[in-house]
Structure formats: C-alpha cells, structure tokens
Amino acid sequence: MQRLQTRPQFQAVLAGAIVAKTTHFALHRNTLDAQPAEADAAVVATVTAVAARPLFPRQDFWIGAMVPKRWAKRAVTRNAIKRQIYTVSADFSRQYPQAAYVVRLRRDFSRKEFISATSEPLKQAVRAEVHALLLAGVSAP
C-alpha cells in the first residue's frame, strides 16, 4: 500500500470517478496511468519540472485521505479521521485492484453528537463508515 503525497497525485485521482459514497465520505478512483489535471500555472510548472518521474512510480494500491477544514474545523479531528482512514484501508489493500484511490470527507460529523474533537465514539463512527465505504468500493465496477 502506497500513500498519495503530492498535489498532482490527488488532483489526478479526484478527476476520476466516484465509485462509492456514504453519508460522510466519497471514494474516488483513477488508474495509475492518469495524468494530472490542468489546474493553475504553479501546479503545471511543478508537474513539468517533475515530468521525468511518473505520477505513480509503482504498480500498487495507492490511497489518499482528504479531510477539508470546511468539514472538520480542528486539526486534531482532521488527523484522527485521516488515521482511521489509513488504518481501515490497510485491511482492504489486498482486495482492491492496483489503482489510486482518495477517501474524501464530504460532510461534517455533528459537533452536538461528538463533543470531543478526538473522542473514541467519533473514531469508531469514522472507522465503521470508512469500512462500509471500502466494502462498497470493492464491488464497484
């Protein structure tokens, strides 16, 4: 299992198809031969500077987690959600074909229900929903 690290990698995967959705998350997928999306001049300049290197250098299961500030205000919450995404996705790495995936948070978790920024109930809720998302993604065409 490899983790997405660069902005062009995330942009290339987000340009692909959404293969599964849950209440709070969406799973994006793109092939490993994907090219970066045309975004802005700075990104294009960066991509051309590293054009000698492929976007995804190894044929493997690539995963990225995208947790915007819009939906998780506190950094500790964003980091806890990302940790849960990476932990659960490691269990599914053998079931998925070699491609690049991004798990994107698309809705906030209720601050009235999960008062603490990094509570155990929040972690369990995230873990359960990401597990359901990845199960749905396995059966997606």
Describe the structure.
There is one protein chain. The protein has 141 residues and is an alpha/beta fold. The protein has one domain (2-138): Ribosomal Protein S5, domain 2 (2-Layer Sandwich), CATH 3.30.230. It contains four helices and five strands. The chain has helices spanning 7-14, 41-49, 75-92, 120-138; strands at 2-3, 17-21, 25-30, 62-66, 100-105. It has a five-stranded mixed sheet. α3 (75-92) links the parallel β4 (62-66) and β5. The chain is globular and about 45 Å long. The mean pLDDT is 87.
Overall CATH architecture: 2-Layer Sandwich
Helix/strand class: alpha/beta
Look at the structure and give the mean pLDDT: 87
CATH class: Alpha Beta
Taking the alpha carbons of the first and last residues, their distance comes to: 21 Å
| Helix percentage range | 25-40%
General shape: globular
Largest sheet: 5 strands, mixed
Instruction: Please state roughly what percent of the residues sit in beta strands, choosing from under 5%, 5-15%, 15-25%, 25-35%, 35-45% or over 45%.
Output: 15-25%
The total count of strands amounts to: 5
In quaternary terms, these chains amount to single chain
Q: Report strand order across the widest sheet.
A: 1-4-5-3-2
Number of folding domains? 1
CATH topology: Ribosomal Protein S5, domain 2
Q: How many whole angstroms does the radius of gyration measure? A: 16 Å
Question: If helices are DSSP runs of H or I spanning 4 or more residues, what is the number of helices?
Answer: 4
The string of secondary-structure elements, in order, is EHEEHEHEH
Taking pLDDT < 50 over at least 5 consecutive residues as the criterion, the unreliable ranges are none
